[in-house]
Design a protein that fits this description.
The structure is a single chain. The chain has eleven helices and twelve strands. Helix content is about 50%, strand content about 20%.
Length: about 325
């Protein structure tokens, strides 16, 4: 894992455009230093010479004598880059590279070779090798290659870090909230398990359906009108919405609907984060029914007492 992500910085030039400087010399050296390299070469003289060059730049450089040795060391280690010769005993560099790619399709492999044959290059490209160094290796060319690979690895690791972080955020939200995604035409494109559980739909059943599918016919018209107006104006909507499940059961969602804009500030989709308020609404309704019943009983009792007092005022006064 690189320690250098914080060296990323953005400059704003006088035209107010963003210029991202990916690699400064200091940044390159820092990232390269933390790389783990597997270097496979059967020629001892070439191997020792290149090893000294690599050791001055990287903290971890592991060497192997042939393709079989290199494959075993790759299986037992964790490497950011493999540099390998082609013609080696027991297992060639290409065969080793092919097996490494089967183990890890994302593996970055660079080949050193004295060949400049078209068929060889095509075979290497088919395996997934995009970096080549023609022998005798020039240190300037090797440095350029290392810099390009360092940038590629750094960008990939930063992307993996962001994806991992995004997945953790998604997991946290999914565990605590109902999540629905709709496209700009208000058709459902995604719903998490919490929504599927309460709505009784499967994901395949609900995908492609209008958001109106889950809106209860008795849903408050004012709320519906406010939702439509807010979404049409790219504004955030928040409110309680009465919904209906596949089995025609009512449930209530406290929704927040956010527009998701692209780089041109045009809506790509909407995301709905909601809380299930069904129990709370049912309890409120039951309490309201109970309040109305108690009020009705009190009024009936008061009415009866008044009627009785009018019929027999003396009896009423005596009872009082």
């Amino acid at each position: 894992m690189f320690c250098c992500y914080k060296i990323f910085y953005i400059k704003i030039n006088y035209k107010k455009r963003f210029n991202i400087e990916l690699i400064t010399e200091e940044f390159y050296k820092c990232c390269l230093k933390s790389m783990k390299i597997l270097y496979v070469e059967d020629d001892e003289i070439i191997r020792d010479e290149l090893l000294k060059f690599l050791k001055r730049r990287c903290d971890v450089v592991v060497t192997a004598n042939d393709g079989e040795d290199g494959l075993n060391k790759y299986k037992n280690g964790s490497f950011d880059l493999v540099i390998t010769d082609i013609n080696m005993p027991i297992l060639s560099g290409l065969d080793m590279a092919k097996q490494i790619k089967e183990l890890n399709p994302k593996a970055i492999i660079a080949i050193t070779t004295a060949f400049n044959d078209k068929d060889f290059l095509l075979s290497a490209i088919d395996i997934g090798i995009s970096k080549f160094l023609i022998k005798p290796i020039k240190t300037k060319k090797l440095d350029e290659m290392l810099k390009a690979i360092t940038e590629k690895i750094m960008l990939r690791k930063e992307n993996e870090r962001l994806v991992k972080l995004q997945n953790q955020y998604k997991k946290a939200v999914d565990l605590s909230s109902i999540v629905i995604k709709i496209d700009k035409d208000k058709f459902i494109t995604y719903a998490n398990d919490k929504f599927l559980d309460i709505s009784k739909y499967s994901l395949d059943e609900i995908k492609g359906k209008s958001l109106c599918t889950i809106k209860h016919p008795n849903s408050c018209e004012l709320v519906s009108k406010d939702m439509i107006e807010k979404l049409s104006e790219n504004q955030v909507f928040s409110g309680m919405v009465q919904c209906v499940s596949k089995e025609m059961d009512s449930f209530y969602l406290n929704m927040t609907i956010n527009p998701i804009l692209n780089e041109d500030n045009i809506i790509d989709e909407f995301i709905i984060i909601a809380q299930d308020m069904t129990k709370e609404i049912i309890q409120q309704n039951e309490l309201e029914k109970l309040r109305i019943k108690n009020l009705k009983d009190t009024m009936e009792k008061a009415t009866n007492i008044k009627i009785e007092s009018l019929i027999d005022p003396y009896q009423y006064l005596q009872l009082s």
